[in-house]
Amino acid sequence: MSSGLPLRYREDRRSLFLLALLFGLFAVQWTGTLRHGMLYGLTGLLAFVACVIKHNHIHCRTFRDERCNRVLEHALGLATGHPTTAIITAHNVRHHGANQAAGDWVRASLVGFRRNWLNLAAFAFVCVARMRADKPSDLRRWKRERPALYRRAVAERAVLYTCLATLLVLDWRATLVYLGGPWIFGQWAIVTINLLQHQDCDPASEVDHSRNVTGRLMNWVLLNNGFHGAHHLRPALHWSRLPDFHRAHVAPRVRPGLDQRSLLLASWRQFFAGPSAWRDTRAARASWS
Fold this sequence. Notes:
mainly alpha
């Protein structure tokens, strides 16, 4: 843990650095100071990273001071185009509480095309449609049951939508292209990665419920998001502690093939490299859902 700093864990200096870098890229591109295709691609990647930071924060708050946490939540909303509190029900409650069951809005069994690359392409859109159809109003429920959370959620939406409206008035083209595009990619990526993390896995198993990607570079950038099995076993464990937990409690017992070194190679094998194992387990996955 950090000592004498507002951060609860000093490793979150990396989170704040990546978030600051994203806002810097937003600024130079929106204003027209510097625009380039490579910068735009990097902005999309960092928007995905911001979604990961948001995910980490709602599981394990970043600062000791709750006022700092509220400011960060507003910043994460602006970084991702989506309020921070808005993912609590879909992720913390539904995904962790009902992993791959009917209540999970990002369960792998929502898609079932014979070509797995089609499942990859369609997954995020199917998940959003399912969520829109099934999701109750968080705000109405929180207003009755969790008034403090309700006030946070309303404040987040007010700040995000006011800032967005202002930017659209000032320059709607730049806002849609240089903020909207990365926001959409980040949201698509954070939803779609669930398919890689859970397809062909066994939600009834203590350790085989998730696919893990253990490569060092990918996990440096994505803040150890590859250690997904460890995260499901200990959702409140800070992301910096997941590799050690994985080595001690997941790696010795996980099914061969569910630990992969490379995100790109794992994705290629799962979605593009010919017939995949998921075709042979459709009946089993149907029983899980």
